[in-house]
Amino acid sequence: MTAPSPRFVQLHRSDDAAVRAELLAGLAEQPSRIAPKFLYDALGSRLFDAITELPEYYPTRTEAAIFAQHGADMAQHVPPQAVLIDLGAGSCAKAARLFDVMHTAAYVAVDISVDYLRESLQALQQRHPALPMLGLGLDFSATLALGGDVTDWLAAQQLHSQPHVVFYPGSSIGNFTPYEALALLRQAHAACAAGGPGGGLLIGVDRVKAANVLEPAYDDALGVTAAFNRNLLLNVNRWLQADFAPAQWDHVAFFDAARSRIEMHLQARSAQTVSWPGGHRTFAAGERVHTENSCKWEPQTFQQLLADAGFGPATHWTDERGWFSVFWAPVA
């Protein structure tokens, strides 16, 4: 008997010239910035996995506890036999825990490259041989248009009329400014509305809390997050053939209460000039490069954001400390 195999579709194609232009434009700004997606090369992804195991980093285990405690109640809201569309799927582990409790009809794992998904999704298919699976290479931070490949695949599986549930765990929505988050959520609404009745969004959201809880989660005692942040410079060196020296940069993370977000920066330890073919950038001692935001939300504020994106009244579940929430927002 032939073993089942997931299908893979690569919609995202890397444009090396465009990536270099994006990096150079960010470095030219005052202050400089580098998009957080450049944190996640192969080493950066492994370092982030290590971060999730740190005692200071509460989001991953807190969200997992919410799903463990409230999964049965969530299943009363999320429609059965839905197509589960997992944004930033990575290892697919979080979505896999939902298959049985949510009675999922099909699984679409979305990440910027199907190469990253391939091994995980193939192993997952062996454990769930009856569940149709599709790996979709898509940079959904640019667009969440799933395209005809997904539509045709669902039609071939006779699943085109099933409700669509977009799953976005981990509070990755926090990497977007409120304006950017609204734009992404509107696209998520369109993806949910493209399926049969009953679809919606299941999303993890980190909440506002005291700085003495938030800041250690992004600046741990072992320095793993610092290594994660500095590794971004090695990735930039590869893209630009630049000569950033990571040891000459300090990791800085702090909570900006006015903007309700953690900011991560790299700060030059001394005056230095970074060069690449055709250009250079001089940094003063203490000058910073902004590498990531992680916005934190109050439940009522995020519920309003969901409403503004077109979703109906949302339900949310939280942990006993009120540190994290998982929202279910149906298509209105």
What can you tell me about this protein's structure?
With 332 residues, this protein is α/β, with parallel strands linked by helices. The protein contains eleven helices and 14 strands. It folds into two domains: 108 residues, no CATH class; 188 residues, 3-Layer(aba) Sandwich (Rossmann fold), CATH 3.40.50.150. The strands form three sheets. The chain has an eight-stranded mixed β-sheet with strand order 1-5-4-3-6-7-14-13, with helices on both faces. A four-stranded mixed β-sheet has the order 2-12-9-8. The protein has a two-stranded antiparallel ribbon with strand order 10-11. Helix 2 runs antiparallel to helix 10. It is globular and about 60 Å long. It starts with 6 loop residues before the first strand and ends with a strand.
